[in-house]
Design goal:
eleven-stranded antiparallel β-sheet
């Protein structure tokens, strides 16, 4: 068979496009050993490998698929947005009170959801459709990345090995059945990489179909997640370093023009709340203020860098999920161990080595990785976990394995010398790749087993009780009721009610003012364990307890039981409650308290209870005015009946005991009634001494009624 010739296109400054000598030799050996052309052999390998990937994916996906709703993210928000689009409401948060427009999440993924669900179907059925759609996108992503890795690395077998590993990666598998945008973003990134690596630079951009396909896929990444900026950065860097000036201009102009509609929409609707959270020192404690100066941003960058190097990247590549970010006793971040940092540096070092050993498109791959990491380094430190680098896991895994392969190959070449030429390249590759595949596979298997185990479990009791409360609200509250809670999208999903998230403010009055402004009817005090509930909502309820009427309790109220946590639903009565003087958060001094049943106390308080002189009015018109102690009537007082009758005397521990002056103006009766434990047991006529005591000026109490 004639020797296959390769020509270097002198007009193309991209030296990475030139096949290397060892690739030519490998192709020739494959032709001689099989009798087929290298191109046909490669096609056969790719088809076979894709079929195997399909089998591996289906097997693992069926094994770990979890039909429960994910508790760790905003999957219900995405579903709500998609459902609103499907119903023709527009891009709004239909689950929130007032249905505000969405400016945080780009609309691509919700739009995709709107096309695959039926708003008339049961919500759980629709969620399952979305979850399985994400699974399909995950598989298609791995096929595209497999083809791309084979192209940029010049080795289809390594690309296949890495793709198999990714199909065993527990983190990727978990996000493949969560209705969130990480997997769709990975799909569009993979599509963008696939098209970009097929561009023929001999064509001008506007005549290149692959350029236009790359631009469309690039815009799809940005309209799925803002991290699409990193994909643009990688493509821009690649074109720039290759001196493809028209392509630099074309991709920049196309990207800027393409994202302008979304930017204009966001700016005209108050800006992105993600940017506001990014600027905050702690988006969960907004009172701490915003980032300012190099010290704040530099400190955040360094802390994130340490965590990503020591935790997120190595654990992601190994398919393990690090969960103990916080010490359960102290609440402080768990320190990164030296062994973790060394493992992270090892993984990153080999990945960087792998980048610079790529025969093609190294700057494209490196640009996307560095662009993504540069962005996530600026995220608030409290946003920990692998979520933000999920789309990077296959790329980093490929670079790590490719770098390890090239390093071992280099060592073998140095050790074997001329004898290496006698070894078939496929055998050599198998000797290097298989141990790596088996080792990493052994590290990933436990993660897959954990996912399978989790899929067989029910919801954690704290969510079971939370959802039970939502189901009760669905059946027992008005359809137009607005419910304030910690997880508004999730509670709305199960209650079919619009919900509202309380303001994260330490000022209790601002929280209640917001309730009134929004029109909140019910408030959930949850047992989910989020710190914001204890920091903001619970203190506001405690301070204004009489504005919150018990409606429903789910859980063990007798003791703290993590397996049966308490969730409360309160009816919010804004007209009820206390207005007056405080000592800290306690009622103290002059004040007025309106109860749920419309009874009213106006007088003095001490240490949060009625103490001193006060007037208590019942809804039926009866009024008590007199002395109080430790929240009950105790001392001299007068009980005015709604019909005009009244009693004067001494109250003991909230009870009428002994003799009381009784007068009925309408019936012209004046007498002394005898009481025991709030019951009349007799009476006697009024004596001159009684008249002197009760009528001639020695009155026990002021005859004062509430105005």
């Amino acid at each position: 068979m004639a020797r296959k010739k390769f020509k270097i296109n002198k007009g193309n400054s991209n030296k990475e496009e030139t096949p290397k000598v060892e690739e030519v030799a490998s192709n020739e050996q494959e032709e001689q050993s099989t009798g087929l052309s290298a191109k046909r052999v490669l096609i056969i390998f790719k088809i076979a490998y894709i079929l195997i990937l399909g089998i591996v994916f289906q097997t693992n996906y069926d094994k770990v698929y979890d039909d429960k709703i994910s508790m760790g993210g905003d999957n219900i928000v995405y579903y709500s947005l998609g459902k609103a689009l499907a119903e023709g409401k527009g891009y709004v948060n239909a689950h929130l009170a007032g249905e505000p427009v969405m400016t945080g999440y780009p609309p691509m993924y919700p739009y995709m959801i709107s096309k695959i669900i039926d708003p008339e179907d049961e919500p759980l059925s629709n969620i399952e459709t979305v979850k399985k759609f994400n699974g399909l996108l995950f598989f298609l992503s791995m096929v595209l990345l497999f083809l791309t890795f084979a192209r940029v690395g010049g080795n289809v077998h390594i690309a296949f090995a890495v793709s198999v590993l990714c199909l065993f990666n527990a983190m990727l598998l978990e996000y493949s059945f969560i209705a969130m945008s990480e997997i769709p973003f990975m799909f569009f990134t993979a599509l963008c990489l696939y098209f970009c690596t097929k561009i023929d630079f001999k064509r001008v951009p506007y005549k290149s179909a692959y350029f236009w396909a790359t631009l469309v896929a690039l815009l799809a990444t940005y309209y799925t997640r803002a991290l699409g900026l990193a994909v643009f950065g990688g493509i821009f860097l690649s074109f720039l370093l290759q001196k493809k000036w028209w392509y630099v201009v074309g991709i920049t102009a196309g990207f800027v023009l393409g994202i302008m509609p979304w930017q204009n929409y966001v700016s005209s609707n108050g800006g992105s709340f993600y940017i506001k959270q990014l600027k905050a020192k702690n988006p969960y404690r907004m009172e701490e203020g915003n980032m300012s100066g190099l010290s704040d941003w530099g400190g955040r960058f360094i802390e994130n860098l340490e965590r990503y190097v020591g935790r997120e990247i190595p654990y992601a590549v190994y398919g393990e999920k690090f969960t103990k970010y916080m010490d359960p006793k102290t609440g402080d971040p768990t320190p990164i161990q030296n062994s973790e940092m060394m493992l992270g540096l090892f993984v990153i070092g080999l990945a960087l080595f792998g980048v610079f050993k790529l025969p093609k498109h190294r700057w494209l791959i490196l640009g996307i990785v560095l662009g993504t990491m540069s962005i996530v380094m600026l995220w608030p430190e409290v946003w920990f976990g692998p979520r933000f680098i999920i789309p990077l896991i296959p790329i980093i895994t490929f670079l790590f394995v490719f770098g390890l392969y090239k390093l071992v190959e280099f060592v073998i070449q140095k050790a074997a010398g001329e004898n290496l030429k006698k070894v078939n390249p496929l055998v050599l590759q198998a000797i290097i790749i298989l141990p790596v595949l088996l080792y990493l596979g052994s590290k990933m298997t436990p993660g897959v087993d954990k996912l399978e185990e989790a899929a067989g479990h029910k919801y954690h009791p704290k969510y079971t009780n939370y959802f039970a409360l939502a189901e009760w609200a669905k059946l027992n509250t008005p359809e137009d009721a607005i419910i304030c809670c910690r997880k508004p999208a999730m509670f709305s999903f199960f209650s079919n009610r619009q919900c509202h998230m309380y303001r994260k403010k330490e000022n209790r009055e601002l929280i209640l003012e917001n309730f009134i402004e929004v029109g909140v009817d019910y408030v959930v005090l949850d047992g989910l364990g989020y710190s914001s509930t204890g920091l903001y909502l619970q203190p506001a309820i405690n301070k204004y307890r009489w504005k919150f009427e018990n409606a429903k309790v789910v859980g063990n109220i007798k003791k703290r039981d993590p397996m049966n946590p308490v969730n409360y639903l309160f009816k919010f009565n804004p007209e009820s409650g206390y207005t007056g003087e405080f000592n800290g958060d306690k009622k103290e001094g002059e004040g007025k308290l309106i109860y749920f049943d419309k009874t009213v106390y106006e007088g003095t308080f001490k240490n949060n209870v009625r103490e001193g002189y006060g007037v208590y009015t019942w809804p039926n018109g009866n009024v008590f005015s007199g002395d109080w102690k430790n929240n009950v009537r105790s001392g001299e007082g007068k009980l005015q009946i709604a019909n005009g009758d009244f009693y004067k005397g001494i109250w003991v521990n909230d009870s009428m005991r002994g003799e009381y002056y009784f007068e009925s103006p309408s019936r012209n009766i004046k007498s002394i009634s005898i009481w025991k434990d709030n019951k009349v047991i007799g009476s006697r006529p009024l004596t001159p001494a009684d008249s002197a005591k009760y009528i001639l000026g020695e009155e026990v109490v002021q005859d004062t009624l509430v105005k």
